[in-house]
Amino acid sequence: MPADRRTAEFYRDQLADLGDITIARMFGGWGLRLHGQFLGAILDDVFYLKVEPFALDAMIAQGGHPFTYTRPSGKRVTIDKWCSVPDDYLDNAASLTEFVRNMTGVL
After folding, report:
1. CA angle 45-28-102, nearest 5°?
2. Sign of the torsion angle spanned by Cα atoms 9, 101, 62, 51
3. Which H or E run contains 26?
4. How confident is the model over 45-81, as pLDDT tens digits?
């Protein structure tokens, strides 16, 4: 099921303190860019951040999971540079913004 644009708009609004975030279609979902640089994606209504390796383990420890998909051949692919934001951060703008700053290095 494609991600709803309203979900992407919600997260854009939650992260407004970071600066100019734009939304664009991406892989049947929505990509978020901060000042033109890829920040994350909303795919199947899950918010994934582009993270550095140091952050992946921290995010998984808090309940996040790497983005995975299955190719038409049946092969399962894991993108370990994208990790879902743990549920504890999703509904509060201040905690989500701080979390994104800590996990991505965005100032």
Report:
1. 50
2. positive
3. strand 21-26
4. 899 999 888 888 999 999 999 999 999 999 999 998 9
| Sign of the CA dihedral running 44, 35, 15, 58 | positive
Q: What is the pLDDT of residue 59?
A: 93
Q: Give the DSSP per-residue string, 51-70.
A: --HHHHHHHHHTT--EEEEE
Helices 93-104 and 53-61: crossing angle, nearest 10°?
140
Instruction: Please name which of 65, 43, 47 lies closest in space to residue 56, comparing C-alpha atoms.
Output: 65
pTM of the model: 0.88
Residues 75-99 as b/e (b if ≥16 CB within 10 A, e otherwise) read eeeeeeebbbbbeebbeeeeebbeb
Q: Which two tokens stand for residue 9?
A: 């708009």
How many Å is the maximal CA-CA distance in the chain? 42
Residue with tokens 């399962």: 76
Residue 23 has pLDDT above 70, yes or no: yes
